[in-house]
Design goal:
By secondary structure, the chain is mainly β. It is built from two helices and nine strands, in the order E-H-E-E-H-E-E-E-E-E-E. It has two domains: 82 residues, Alpha-Beta Plaits (2-Layer Sandwich); 50 residues, SH3 type barrels. It binds cytidine-5'-triphosphate (CTP) and zinc ion. Zinc ion binds next to loops.
Length: 153
């Protein structure tokens, strides 16, 4: 039987960054966190692509853009399985995974309904007390928001 050639749903890029394995439901959150709506480089993306691991995944390709690790790690809460591929001259020259950072600003909501961040215009701030099963300690009220109660803003 003839084997289907591997087809790309989103065209290859010459130079830049490919962020693969983003949960489809968080694609626009990733775009927002990385500020991709404000950059001039060419961006292509695909979403609701089939993934064995994630069910539906999204992929973003950003030409001529290379991120600092600290910037890219901000997506870890919404795309913990994201894989970064650094492309130079059409070749994948490096692969990276995202890592949950030590502190998180914004992105998540504090689960304490009485927390100041939930009724005043104050951006949330957390210390990450556990990375594997994410647990975030609020800078303001010191309550822990765990994975189960994690809500993305
Ligand atoms: N890619 C791209 N442009 C290139 C080379 C690769 O957009 N010039 C993309 C591919 O479409 C793929 C990702 O970069 O989504 C990684 O490429 P590659 O390592 O060749 O693919 P896989 O082996 O499928 O990667 P993995 O299994 O590690 O996700
Ligand atoms: Zn709080």
């Amino acid at each position: 039987m003839k084997k289907e050639p591997k087809q790309l749903s989103v065209s290859a890029i010459q130079n830049g960054t490919v962020i693969d394995h983003i949960p489809a439901k968080h694609l626009f959150k990733v775009i927002q966190i990385l500020g991709l709506d404000k950059i001039d480089q060419q961006i292509t993306f695909g979403t609701n692509l089939d993934s064995k691991k994630l069910g539906k995944k999204a992929i973003i390709k950003i030409s001529e853009k290379f991120f600092a690790d600290d910037d890219i790690n901000r997506i870890a809460l919404v795309a913990p399985d994201a894989k970064l591929n650094i492309i130079r001259d059409y070749e994948v020259v490096e692969k990276k995974v995202v890592e949950v950072p030590d502190t998180i600003t914004g992105i998540a909501r504090c689960m304490n309904p009485k927390c100041i961040t939930n009724f005043e215009h104050v951006m949330t701030r957390f210390k990450v007390v556990s990375k594997k099963n994410v647990a975030l300690k609020c800078h303001y009220c010191e309550k822990i928001t765990d994975q189960e109660n994690l809500q993305i803003i």
